Amino acid sequence: MAALPKSPLRDSAFEVDKLTNEIFSILENKFLFGYDSPNFAAPKTHQPGKLAAGKVRILSIDGGGATDGVLAAKSLVHLEASLRLRSGDPNARIADFFDVAAGSGSGGILAALLFTRRKDAGEGGPPTIAAEEALRFLARCRKASRGRRMFRRRWPGGGAEKKLLRRAFADELTMRDTVKPVLIPCYDLESRAPFVFSRADALEMDGYDFKLRDVCAATVAERPMELRSVDGRTRIVGVDGRVAMNNPTAAAITHVLNNKQEFPFCNGLEDLLVLSLGNGGSDFEDPGRSGLARITEDGASAMVDQAVSMAFGESGKHNYVRIQANGFAGARQGLAKHKKKTRDILESAEEMLAQKHVDSVLFQGKKMGERTNIDRLELFSGEILKEEERRKTSILPTVVLKRSSPHSTRTSSATSLSVSSSV
C-alpha cells in the first residue's frame, strides 16, 4: 500500500497495536479519498473481529411552534425517564447521552439549558439540569409573557423573560461553557445571512465566543438586537433563529461530518444517531406573525425533515427519528381558546406525544406509522444506550471534545448555570 499523506489522525496520542494501525489506515483512506460505494446511506455490516468507532448522537430542537418549545421539552422529559430506567441511573441526564445539540428559537434556549454546567453541581453530582427543570423554565417564561408567544416583540429591552434569562445564565457564562458541542442560530442583519453560534468556534477564538444569555436572546428576538463577542471584535445584529433555520437538523449533521477534530471517524450518515424534535408547527392564532412567515417557517422545517429522511434511506428506520405533531387542527383550536393557560399547553403536548407518528417515505410523501411518538422515543432510548455500552469497550474514540486552549486569557471553570432558583 502506498504511503498515505500526513493527516491529523496520524498525530493522535493513542497507543495502538498493529491491528489498530491497520484500522486507522483504512479509516484514513476513506476520509482522504472517499467511499468505495456510492450507497453511503446503507448501514454498515459489522463482521466478527472488526472494530467500529460507533455513532455520534445528535439532538436537534425546532424553534417556537404552537407549544413554545413545550412539546420538545416534554419529549425530552419522557426520553430522560426512559434512559434512567434502562440505565439504572436515577441521575441520568439528556446531556449524558448526546454528543451534539442544536436548537433554534425556544429550542436554542432548551439546548443551552440542558447542556450547560449547573451552578449547584457538586463533586460527583449531575453536572447538568434535568429535562423536567428545563420544562419548568420554559413554562415559567410562557407564564411571564402573559399568554403571548414566547418573547414576542419583547427583545431587546427588559421584561420578565429577560430577567429569567439573567438568572439562569450568569454574566460570565459563554458558548465555551457548554459541556458538549452546541449550535444555536440567528439571522445576522449585518451580513444578511444566518449566523450559527458554535461551541467549537468559541473554543478556537474569543471573536466567536458570545455570552449565552445574549445568544439565547438573539435566537428568539423578533426585533433586531446587537450583541458582541467576548473580546468585542465581532458584532452581530441578530433576529429570530427561526428565520435562519427553524429546523437545525441539517446544520447539526453538516457540523459533525465536517468536524474531524471532534468526530474523527464519522464519515457518513450511517455513523449518526439523530433525534429531531418539532413543536407542533406554528400557532396560526398568533397575530404577531404574518401568515406567510408562519407558512415559510413550517414549510422549511418540513423540507429539512424530508431531505434528511431521504438521505438516511433505509438506515433512517433506526438512525433518524423525527417527533412532530400531526392532525393538529383540533389542538390549535384548544390552544387558541386557552392560550393564556400554560397547563393547557402541557396537556396538549402530552396528547401530541400520544399521536401516531408520521414518516417521510421515499417517493411516497408522508405516511402514518403504527407507533406513537412516545413509542418511538422509547425505542430510540434503546439505540442510545446500545451506543453508550459499546463505547465502554471500544478502543477507538467516537468523540474527542475540544478544550480551551492553554494560552486562552479567560477561564470558564467557575461559570455555571443556575435554573433551580428561577423556576
UniProtKB/TrEMBL annotation:
Lipolytic acyl hydrolase (LAH). Residues 403-423 are annotated as: Disordered. Residues 60-253 form the PNPLA domain. One of its GO terms (molecular function) is hydrolase activity. Keywords: Hydrolase, Lipid degradation, Lipid metabolism. Belongs to the patatin family. Residues 408-423 have a biased composition (Low complexity). Its EC number is 3.1.1.-. The nitrogen atoms of the two glycine residues in the GGXR motif define the oxyanion hole, and stabilize the oxyanion that forms during the nucleophilic attack by the catalytic serine during substrate cleavage. This is Patatin. It holds the Pfam family Patatin. One of its GO terms (biological process) is lipid catabolic process. InterPro entries: Acyl_Trfase/lysoPLipase, PNPLA_dom.
